[in-house]
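Subject: sequence -> structure tokens, single chain

Hey, anyone have a minute? Need the predicted structure for the following. Not urgent.
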Amino acid sequence: MVKAVIFDMDGLMIDTERLLVKYWLEAAQVYGYEMKAEHVLGIRSMEAKHAARKLKQEIGQDFDYYKVRELRKKRMNAHIDTYGLEEKKGLGELLEYLKKYHYRTAVATATDYERTTRYLSSLDRLRYFDEIVCASMVEHGKPEPDIYLEAAARLHTEPSACMALEDSPNGILSAYRAGMYAVMVPDLSGPDEETGRRLYRCVKDLSQVIPLLEEME
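Reply:
Had a minute. Here:
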């Protein structure tokens, strides 16, 4: 029986993944790097030190991850300040359901705490969560299980009684390693074969999580 539901944020609750791709590519181009969309997709939800190593291997050893990321952040923040954020389909319906039936809830995200709370507050969704856990709060970020284990501990719930909602393979691997029911809600790409083996289920949007919870009662 699931007692708690833990959410990733970017690409799962908020439609930011397309912005991440756009501004990673723009920032990389400014510094003369040939970055492609698949490079960005491969580091979704991944801890910075792992992402930096991966991109050096794929793009070149001279790729300055942190310099490019800083420019990406500035351009993406300017976009969000101008145009705001959009939430993903079914989020409100699912959050209301979880509140009604007294599920514990948390966010487990690679995004820093200030931006996480700002983003969710701007959509009036922060109030639905009991805990916010960011990668900076644990020793190892995704795809290691630390962030999900920390979220479960803060919710006073065994990992085996938690459902984790993710849109990326790195996030799914993190939740799977933590021993949770890993549910994928694809955003820019669906699960590959390896990711598929780690899933409890894959659904089209967040509202479809509700029937999963009902069948597990």
